[in-house]
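Request from the bench team (R.T.):
"We need a structural guess for the complex before ordering more flavin-adenine dinucleotide. Sequence and SMILES attached. Just send the tokens back."

Command: build protein-flavin-adenine dinucleotide structure.
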Amino acid sequence: MAAPVSPSSSLRPSLRSGVPLRDFTTWKVGGEAEWFAEPAAGAELLALLRWRLEAGLPLQCLGAGSNLLIADSGLAGLTLCLRRLQGSRFDAQEGWVEAEAGEPIPTLARKAARAGLSGLEWAVGIPGTVGGAAVMNAGAQGGCTADCLHSLQVLDPARPDQPFTLAASELGFAYRHSRLQQDPLVVLSARFRLEPGHDPAAVTARTSANLHSRTSTQPYQQPSCGSVFRNPEPLKAGRLIEDLGLKGLSIGGAQVSPLHANFIVNTGNATAADIAALIAVVQERVEAAHQLRLHPEVKRLGF
Ligand SMILES: Cc1cc2nc3c(=O)[nH]c(=O)nc-3n(C[C@H](O)[C@H](O)[C@H](O)COP(=O)(O)OP(=O)(O)OC[C@H]3O[C@@H](n4cnc5c(N)ncnc54)[C@H](O)[C@@H]3O)c2cc1C
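Reply to R.T.: structure attached below.
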């Protein structure tokens, strides 16, 4: 892709062009980012956002890329991967936890358990960041982000110098949804309220049990994006797909997982187009059988 604007020399260490985004998604697919950076500190993020504003480029944010299907043609403008913005602070007496946007949510769950804080045990098997969990209202095993999130520190990329706080009640949380899926705000950090005073060994045991039950029933060893479709509650997308005999169905290198029918795995050489085509076929088959349209949970970028 052509580079429309030259970054200043101070940005050159962090900013790169033509970066393959398959290296930044758990599906291991996706074309190149026109411009790409992984800021490790707030000041670096701010400088990148100011440059992108001056250059008039589109902006995309990635966390761990564990819920993203990025087009084979790649992404125009600036792609920021925020997973290096890590760190967390705990007030074990009161139950307050503050975490940077790039902190892995399983790491946070483990640290909370060790501090005797209960409320994040469900999060241990979700391979995303705190920022991505807030945007997606990630959840598992009966818990979700909205249950324990107090507030977010965010910024509007159109006014990057003015970060502000959004209370959880302002985030429009619903099943795998927050208003951040429509509003292009950048999540900087999150404040959680957990339950203090628990036995660390007991919370750790519950957390480990949750991880074990997932890794034994889901294809964690193959590149995927977790559940592809939202559950059409009270029905389960995986059950509908499995009952139609679609486990193992393949297009190119994309396959409906033989282990869990709501997962599409990359068997080695999948393209984003293969995965998108397989998603469409599954939707058509389910709709033909049940007059019900499955809606993807994964976010598409660049299509
Ligand atoms: C094996 C596997 C199992 C999974 N299991 C579950 C599960 O049980 N439950 C569940 O809910 N999900 C699950 N997922 C999906 C995924 O891990 C979650 O949706 C996770 O919350 C995504 O976080 P992320 O950091 O990877 O976000 P990404 O996938 O990088 O991004 C997701 C969305 O958030 C936005 N975003 C990310 N970070 C920021 C930020 N700092 N500021 C602004 N926007 C941002 C992106 O632009 C995008 O729109 C699974 C995925 C895999 C691969």
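Two things stood out. The domain at 237-301 is CATH 3.90.78.10 (Uridine Diphospho-n-acetylenolpyruvylglucosamine Reductase; domain 1). The radius of gyration is 20 Å.
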